[in-house]
Amino acid sequence: MNSNLQKAYDELLAKSKELTILQSTTAIVNWDMETKMPPKALNLRSQQMALLELISHKMLTDPQVGKTLEGIEKAPGYTEFDTVQKRNVYLARKAYDEATKLPESLVFDTAKQQTIAVGVWKKAKAAKDYKMFKPELKKMIELRQKAADILMGVKGTKTPYDALLDDFESKMTADKITKVFDEMRVGLIDVMKRVEKSGYKPDKSILSRPVPINVQKKISDAAMDYIGYDTKSPNAGGRLDETEHPFTTGYYDDVRITTHYHEGRWVSSLYSVMHEGGHALYDQNLPQAWMYQPIGSASSYGIHESQSRFIENMVGRSPEFLSYMLPRLKKIVGKPLRGVKFADFFAAVNVVEPSKIRIEADEVTYGLHIIIRFEMERDIFAGRLTVEELPQAWNEKYDKYLGVEIENDGEGVMQDTHWASGYYGYFPSYALGNIYGGMFLKKLKKDDPTWKKELKKGNFQPVKNWMIENVHSKGNLYDPADLVKEVTGETLKVKPFISYLEKKFGKIYGF
Amino acid sequence: MNSNLQKAYDELLAKSKELTILQSTTAIVNWDMETKMPPKALNLRSQQMALLELISHKMLTDPQVGKTLEGIEKAPGYTEFDTVQKRNVYLARKAYDEATKLPESLVFDTAKQQTIAVGVWKKAKAAKDYKMFKPELKKMIELRQKAADILMGVKGTKTPYDALLDDFESKMTADKITKVFDEMRVGLIDVMKRVEKSGYKPDKSILSRPVPINVQKKISDAAMDYIGYDTKSPNAGGRLDETEHPFTTGYYDDVRITTHYHEGRWVSSLYSVMHEGGHALYDQNLPQAWMYQPIGSASSYGIHESQSRFIENMVGRSPEFLSYMLPRLKKIVGKPLRGVKFADFFAAVNVVEPSKIRIEADEVTYGLHIIIRFEMERDIFAGRLTVEELPQAWNEKYDKYLGVEIENDGEGVMQDTHWASGYYGYFPSYALGNIYGGMFLKKLKKDDPTWKKELKKGNFQPVKNWMIENVHSKGNLYDPADLVKEVTGETLKVKPFISYLEKKFGKIYGF
């Protein structure tokens, strides 16, 4: 590389570093807001967040970055860049174009409408009154439609909705998703029906026996110990706190998770810790050498979700993990687990049951909740579904796919915050995470047939190492579909995930 | 005000608001570093802090601010500005000049040397090896000397050291401090000697009876309840956490304190909470109308210290507070306080005893520790004392003023971090806080003779209201000496503080 080109590349990385450090700071300030902030500080904090956002936006759209990028891309030496360098330039270019092509007024109006719509959504949901929410939702969709129209040009996608999808799942399209989701829907409904037909109803009451919160905290410790998410050693890079909705945030050496404790739903926290722990391990194990570079980030929301769901479900709800954990849980929990048999406990944490609420759904029906949302988003942005028709379309799909009857829009079309927040294109990543997870599982089995035996011994290291080597260590070198191809040698396939479900739930429900 | 001038003034306030919001964000990130941050994050955090510092410095030195300031100051309408407006312009001008007149290289070198010197100081202190520390201290003093020489011009002070003092105590000079400290030294030594002569040695062992930390936390709650520092209501603007060295940080609606718990030193936390709570009440009760303006800040370090010391000592170590608190402490603490008589407890928390370590000193001898540091700083920057001579000078003064023999430089000249950090001119504020406190006390007694009776009933409100009305509500409208004049009608006087000590300790020690 000639020295001018080297200088330009170094400059680009320096700008990227500055932006990354600022964003990692914002993550901490946001974490504080969710976990520690005194309530009176809300207004001050919203101004602090807005200022950080403004500074970040200025850095991101700094014309100097545009010039540097152009200089690099036009330089004859650019073709000799290695894969990593090219990906860094590509990612920086993508972020720059997307940020600069959206008019600031649109960005501003969207942020404002987000606050308004989320505020109204909360009230409308509580009042079960879709009419109240409708005008704000409509405005939000229109704003995102405008952004999508512009981003379609910038990103070169076929449709506006594809441009929105690309924000969460780079290069993914509605056509591709429709294809895999159609197949997944059939598979999921099939498993769900076979579960229903089996007639077996595991006793879930074990899970609602009250367990004091200080005892549940010991379960969290056991779960974090199991997966090796370190919050206690002198070199710990994580910590656990409490919020109503669990989340993960942070960067590399400072990645924090949260959980929630409910006395009468004590496994909820166990699985929140496993889920968020899965996210955290990904962020903590991105390659050190890529820290502060564009490539030093996760591949996509879907890949992130594959990691959290793998640890929550494929590990955390496996017979091997549970047979290791149950005796330990009995020691921690005491009376509420006294005399509980392994088979009953295993079945209880794996109950399959169609329900109305996504975040309470089991491993099998969860995907159906997502498919419903995806199909509706897709149709909205294709002009095939109006805001007026949403509640009815929602209720019909819930009846058709899950066989449940939605009684009001609070538990129906208004149950999630995503649409009020303007996050269209986000939902599919959840189910794509399951699909990626199924493919990773298949490959892991092949690469290391002993992994399950090790889980049973309490040894999570083989799974962790496989994930680090195959997923975490690749950072954002690939778009998600390419990463999956690179890891498994295959294009996107639903079958491994469905096979996993069939085998697991076949054993529990006897089909 | 004409519309151009109004526009310029609004612009100035907008810039000030942006800077203030950023600095309040930095305070939260710093708080996180001291209290919650996973240890592995240290390097990332130092980069985050450096970036915030850089952005803050850019805002502070923005040439547009200089132009706006000049426009305002030269406008004919400026003379018609009211006191608040003029003070805002004055404070903004002061901050701008001080920030822009120091070469960036000097600022950068000083920050770098600070990290180095503090690192070496820690090691040298542990090794009791002044020789190790000396070269770094020397460099640090030289850098601050350079800054002082420049700032002397900017601020128009008589000496370079006065320019450093001005950073902490606006318009205060070494001459003025020497005058009051000379008088204070005589007074303090006199009280100390009378205590010694009395022969009475209160039994301190009550205070070293082990009290479990979870019990001590209930004492913290009682102390916070007493002074009305709210960490628990739905509109709380504060919180309490733990750090080795207690501190207060934050802004208006988000002001947080920390304390430390040692099983065998259980009153330490009680008084840390009272002290930091005093700082916090000041910051929380600055005028709402001045939020985000230059004037919406504390008057000085010394005034801040007057608030914390007033609550820690004049309230917290008073017989009235203690007679209210002791029965409650007995309930909380149980056995360690069983059978303890009020007079013995009161005497135990008020033991006067010359010691080597500033942060462990009592109300009487504390000021002597400060005077020693002040005299040495003053003489260093006047060229009358060299870095080579520091340890000997230190030890001689400790012998002369306090009658204690320093055995090594770890417990001597290297005990504090301030000089390694380059904070010359900081120490005097601690003792000025006591002096201001004495003057406020005298005025409070006159304004509200019932205040002590109310303390005894558990009613802190009269003291708090007096402080809010007289000190907090005035924000940064006055330099500290002017504020004291405004409140008490008097110029700086040591007598009220010494009289307070004589009366209080005369009663305890019978002189």
Walk me through what this model shows.
The structure is a homodimer of 511-residue chains. By secondary structure, chain A is an all-alpha fold. Chain A has a domain at 3-101: Methane Monooxygenase Hydroxylase, Chain G, domain 1. Helix content of chain A is 65%, strand content 3%. Chain A is built from 21 helices and 3 strands. The first copy, chain A, has helices spanning 3-35, 42-60, 63-74, 83-101, 104-127, 130-155, 160-168, 174-198, 213-227, 266-284, 301-315, 319-333, 342-348, 366-381, 390-402, 418-421, 427-447, 451-456, 461-470, 480-488, 495-509, and strands spanning 240-242, 248-251, 254-259. In chain A, strands 1-3-2 form a 3-stranded mixed sheet. In chain A, a hairpin with a 2-residue loop joins strand 2 and strand 3 (254-259). At the A-B interface, helix 1 and helix 2 of A face helix 1 and helix 2 of B.
Q: TL;DR of this structure?
A:
The structure is a homodimer of 511-residue chains. The first copy, chain A, has 511 residues and is mainly alpha-helical. In chain A, 65% of the residues lie in helices and 3% in strands.
Layout of SSEs?
2 copies of one chain form a homodimer.
Chain A: H1 3-35, H2 42-60, H3 63-74, H4 83-101, H5 104-127, H6 130-155, H7 160-168, H8 174-198, H9 213-227, E1 240-242, E2 248-251, E3 254-259, H10 266-284, H11 301-315, H12 319-333, H13 342-348, H14 366-381, H15 390-402, H16 418-421, H17 427-447, H18 451-456, H19 461-470, H20 480-488, H21 495-509
Parallel strand pairs in A: 1-3
Antiparallel strand pairs in A: 2-3
